Amino acid sequence: MIPRIHKQGRNTVRLLAYLYGPGRREEHTDPHLVASFDGLAPDPGRDPSTTLADLAQLLDEPLHLLEEDARPATHVWHTSVRSAPGDRTLTDAESADIARRVIAATGIDPSDGAGCRWAAVRHADDHIHLIATLVREDGRRPDHHRSAKRAQTECRQIEVDYDLHRVAAGDGTAATRPTSAERHKAERLGRQRTPREELREAVRRSAAGAASEEEFFDRLASAGLLVRRRIAPSGDTLGYTVALPDDRNGKGEPVFYSGSKLAPDLSLPRIRERWAQPSGDTAQEPARPAVTGPASSRRRAAGAAWQALRVIDDGDDGDDGVIAAQIAAAGEVLDALAKTSAAHTRHELQAAAIAFERASRSRIRATRGHDHALRRAARDLVRGGPALGRGEDGATTAMVIDMLFFLITAAAHWHARKQHAQQAEAAHRAAAHLRAAYPTAADHPMAFLHQRGSRLAPAWQRHHVATLRQALPELADQILAEPGWPALAATLDEARTVGHHPVALLVQAAARRELDTAERMSDVLVWRLRRMADLPADPRNSRSGPVRGSAAASSQEPAAHVDARAANSPRRGR
Question: Which of the four pLDDT bands, split at 50, 70 and 90, describes residue 183?
C-alpha cells in the first residue's frame, strides 16, 4: 500500500467537497465514510440529512476553541492510502481498520485519548482518503513529525497482515515524485509524462559523461531547455534551475525546477562530484585512439562495463563507496546509450535507463573518481554520435547490451545484499528491458554467423566441438544444444584464423559470473570472444580468410587434436 501525504490546507469544507464530489474525471463513485475519530461522525454520502458543513464543523471544533491568533495557519491534514494494482478489493471494514492504523502511526490520533479529529472517506475500490484537523482535543498541536515515514512503515506491516502486494521499502533517496496538480495538468494538456519527469530525464542525459560545468550547461541548452544559473557575487555558479519552454503557469511564465527538486543527485554540487579524480591518483592515463564513431564507442563501453563488473564482483564491504560510484556511472552509460541508439532499440534502452535511475542512488555515498572509465565511456558514446541500426554499429550495440545486462544484474545483486529493496527491484527491471532490447540488435549479425558456422567443413565443426569440450567440459553439452552454437563455432574459427588460441579464449571468456544462468550462453560467448579477440562485431566486416566450407579452405585440415597448451597460454587483457 502506498500512503501519500498531501500539502496541508486551510479549508476543511473545500477538501470534503472534493472527496465527496464526482472527481475531476467523474471517477468518484459512492463516496462515503468508513471510519472517524469516534466512530460516530455523520456521513454526508449516506445520510441525506447531513451536509459537508456539518462534518467540517465537527472536525474543526477543537480549532475554534483556540483564540484566533493562536490557530495554525494551515490546519487541514490530508493523506491517501492506495492499494497496489492487482490487489484484491478490500471491504469497508478492512479499510476502516487500515485508516485507524495509519492515523495512529502518524501521530494524528495516538492512543492517549487526546488526539486530533479525523475521518476516512472512500470513493473508489483501491484507495481511501484521510482528513484531519491539526489541533488536538486538549488544544495542543499533534506530534506528526516524519508522518510520511511512519505511515510507510505501518503500511509495510499492513501488507503482511492483509496479504497484499509487498512494496519495497524506501530509504529517502528516491527522486521527487510529481504532485497531484502536476499529474492532472499533464493529463489535461495531453502529456504522457509530467514536466518534472521530462526534465529529470533531460538533465540526467545532459550530465551523462559531461566533463565540465560548461559542457553540462551547454548540453542543457542544446536539449532545448530554459536554464537559469544562480550566480554568487564572486561570479561562481551556485546552482541552476531548468524549465520546458512550453510548460507555463497561470501567468504565462515558465515553471522552473532546481536540480535537487528533480533528483537528489542532480543538484549542481552533486553533479560536480562526478568530475572528481581518484584521491592520490597522479598517474597520467595512457593516450587512447580517438573515438571514430558509434561502433568504436560501443566497444569501449563494453570494455568499461567489464572492468566495472569486476569491481562489483571482487569488492568487499570496504569498497562500498567505490561500488556505488560504479553503479551510478553505469546509469550514465545507459543514458548515453539510449540517447544515441537506433530507432528499433531506442524504446527498450530508454526504458532501461529510466528504470535504472532509481538504482543509481542509495544511502551509500558514491566515492567519485574511481568511476572514470565508465564516465569516459558515456562521454565517448555521446561524442560517437547516433548509431545506425545494422552493420558494425548495430552489432556493437548488441555487444554492449550483452555486457551491460551482466553489469546491471550484478548491481541488482549488490543492492539486494545491502537490503536496498527499491534499488534492487529497479535494477532488475532495467535488466529485463536490456534483455528485451538484445534480440533486436543481435538478430542480423547472429543470423549471419549462424549461416557461416553451419557451412563450416565437417572436420572443422568437429574440431571446434572438441575445443569447446576441452575448455568448458561442464557446460559443453548445454552450449552444443543451443541454436546459437553454429554462431559460436564460426567465431571460434575466425579467432583461430587470425592467430588466437580458441581454448584459451574460451576459458577466459567463461571466467566470469553467471554464464551458466544466461538465457543463451552461446550468444554471451560470441560477444565476449569477438571483443577479446578484436574481431569485427559484424562478421561481414571480418578480416579472416574464406569461409571454411569453401573449396579453397577445404584443403586445410584441422589438427588431429586440440593443442592443450593453448589453455594454459597467458590471458589477453580485456
Answer: confident
For residues 317 and 136, what is the distance between their CA atoms, to the nearest angstrom? 47
- Total Cβ atoms within 10 A of residue 365: 14
Spacing of C-alpha 250 from chain mean position: 33
Residue 165's identity, in one-letter code, is H
Q: What is the pLDDT of residue 280?
A: 53
Give the strands of the sheet with 127-136, arranged side by side. Answer: 2-5, 76-82, 127-136, 116-124, 32-36
Give the Cα separation of 392 and 399 in Å (integer): 10
The packing angle between helices 213-222 and 195-207, to 10°, is 140
CA proximity to 562, closest of 451, 464, 443:
464
> DSSP 3-state assignment of 477?
helix
- Please say if the pLDDT value at position 222 is more than 90: yes
CB atoms within 10 A of CB 230: 12
User: Tell me: the pLDDT tens digits for 448-500?
Assistant: 999 999 999 999 999 999 999 999 999 999 999 999 999 999 999 999 999 99
Q: Which three cell numbers stand for residue 39?
A: 466512530
Q: Average of pLDDT values for 98-110?
A: 92
Identify which of 269, 267, 274, 271 has the alpha carbon closest to the alpha carbon of residue 370: 274
Q: Using CA atoms, how far apart are residues 242 and 49, in angstroms rounded to an integer? A: 51
In the sheet that 226-231 helps form, which strands lie side by side, from edge to edge?
226-231, 237-243, 257-258
Q: Per-residue confidence at 515, pLDDT binned at 50, 70, 90?
A: low
Q: Could you please report the per-residue DSSP string of 531-567?
A: HHTT--SSGGG--S-S-TTSHHHHTSPPPSS--GGGG
Q: What is the per-residue pLDDT for 563?
A: 47
Residue 218, helix vs strand vs coil:
helix
Rounded distance between C-alpha atoms, residue 471 and residue 462, angstroms: 14
Question: What is the residue whose three cell numbers read 458543513?
Answer: 53
> What's the pLDDT band for 553 if we cut at 50, 70, 90?
very low
**pLDDT of 544 over the 80 cut:** no
pLDDT given for residue 520 in this prediction: 85
Which fold, 2-161?
A: BirA Bifunctional Protein; domain 2 (3.30.930)
What ranges do the domains of the chain cover?
A: 2-161, 190-273, 294-437, 455-568
Q: How far apart are CA 280 and CA 60, in angstroms?
A: 63
In whole angstroms, give the CA distance from residue 310 to residue 261.
34
Is pTM beyond 0.70? Reply is yes
3-state secondary structure 365-411: CCCCCCCHHHHHHHHHHHHHCCCCCCHHHHHHHHHHHHHHHHHHHHH
